[in-house]
Amino acid sequence: KDPDFKLIYKEIAHYDEHDKLRIENIKISRKQIVQYLRKRYSKEMVEKIVKAFNFAPMSSMDDYCKTIDTFTSKSIEEKRKLGFAIHDTNNDGKICPGDVFSVYAGNSEF
Q: Which SS3 state, helix, strand or coil, does residue 27 take?
């Protein structure tokens, strides 16, 4: 029930000649993914997420799901490294109070 997601969905939805939405017609650009993430996370965090997932410039729904699935099938160690990299906002190899504040101050959920 996220209104931001609905707006982005309307932009990415492509209908066939009979005005029927077909999942294989849905395309999403890297820019749209970034716009959606920026509504929730800091700029630095979004850059790290997009870099880690390496989204294609334009993805079909199938490509997007494969990209996400690639992450979910990674080892716990690889997921831990990504989580650490996202929270280490100043890239000093440590997570300090400033990093934590930076992450959560940029997140509209907190």
A: strand
> CA nearest 48: which of 80, 85, 94?
85
Tell me how crowded residue 89 is: count the other CB atoms within 10 A of its CB.
20
pLDDT of residue 39: 83
Residue 29 makes CB contacts below 8 A (sequence gap 6+) with 12, 57, 58, 59
- pLDDT tens, 37-67? 888 787 888 888 888 888 778 777 778 778 7
CA-nearest of 97, 104, 36 to 64 is 36
Place of tokens 């849905």: 26
CA 32 to chain centre: 9
CB atoms within 10 A of CB 84: 13
Q: Are 33 and 55 in contact (CB under 8 A)?
A: yes
> At how many degrees (to 10) do helices 30-38 and 3-12 cross?
170
